[in-house]
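Usage

Read records sequentially. Each one opens with the input sequence:
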Amino acid sequence: MFSPQFIEGDSAESLGLDGHEAFTIGEFAGNGPPYTVGVSAQGPKRTTFFTCRVRIDTPKKSSTTATAASCNKYVVRQLAA
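and closes with the structure output:
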């Protein structure tokens, strides 16, 4: 579990998001906090792509997030094989 945050200058309004979207979260990018993540928001009329900052609020969460990100990449590769 992580807390995505719009990057400076982006907002739900500026991206045209109204709460009816289904979101797909990509892989974490970066070498450590702060991480970023690509997001795809599929709405009824269009798909919007944007980047979010991944908020890491505690040292424990930072360690867990880094481990989970590595684990998720491994699981996705295994499922794709």
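Summary fields computed downstream for this record:
- The chain has one domain: 3-80.
- The helical segments are 12-15, 59-80.
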